[in-house]
Design brief:
With 156 residues, the chain is of the alpha/beta class. It has five helices and seven strands, in the order βαβαββαβαββα. It has two domains: 4-88; 94-154, no CATH class.
C-alpha cells in the first residue's frame, strides 16, 4: 500500500489519508531537502503544495498538489497515483499519530469514553502508541459516504 510523507501545506489532507487507511506521516521540519531525502529514505510519496519543489532533483515520487480544497486534493491523489481506496482499510489508523488501531475490550474503555458512548457503542478500537480510543458512529458513516464519492470503482 502506498505510504505518504506530507509537509505542513497539506495538513487537512493528512487526516483524510489516515481515515482511508494510508500510512501518512507529517514532516515538521522546514528544510525542503530534508523532506525530499526522508521521502526517498522511507519509500514514501511526498505531498506538498509548494510549487518550487517540482524543480528540485528528487529520486522518489513527489506530488505537488494543485488544489487548496481537501476534497479536490483527495481526487487529485487518487487519479494521479491510480489509487483504489478499499473500504476495509478505512478507519484502521490513528488520526493523531498514524499508528494502526487494534481492538480493545469494551470494559477497558468504560472510564475513558463518555457515558452515552459507552452505553450505545459495543465496538471500540485503540491506538497502541498514543492510547486514543475510537468507535463507529454517525461521524464514521458521514466520513465513509464522503470517501465513497472519491472512490473510482464506485463512480458511474
Amino acid at each position: 500500500m502506498t505510504k505518504f510523507l506530507a509537509d505542513s501545506t497539506v495538513g487537512k489532507l493528512v487526516k483524510w489519508l489516515r481515515i482511508m487507511g494510508y500510512d501518512t506521516v507529517v514532516h515538521t521540519g522546514a528544510a525542503d531537502r530534508v523532506l525530499l531525502d526522508r521521502g526517498v529514505r522511507e519509500d514514501r510519496v511526498v505531498l506538498s503544495r509548494k510549487k518550487e519543489l517540482a524543480g528540485r532533483q528528487f529520486r522518489g515520487i513527489l506530488l505537488v498538489i494543485d488544489s487548496d480544497r481537501v476534497s479536490e486534493q483527495i481526487d487529485e491523489i487518487i487519479q494521479r497515483l491510480r489509487l483504489t481506496p478499499r473500504q476495509e482499510d478505512f478507519f484502521t489508523r490513528c488520526l493523531s499519530c498514524n499508528d494502526l488501531l487494534g481492538p480493545v475490550c469494551r470494559e477497558n474503555v468504560k472510564d475513558r469514553v463518555p457515558p452515552y458512548v459507552f452505553k450505545t457503542q459495543h465496538v471500540f478500537v485503540q491506538c497502541s502508541r498514543c492510547g486514543s480510543i475510537f468507535w463507529p458512529g454517525t461521524h464514521q458513516e458521514r466520513m465513509t459516504a464522503i470517501l465513497n464519492r472519491h472512490n473510482p470503482t464506485d463512480r458511474p
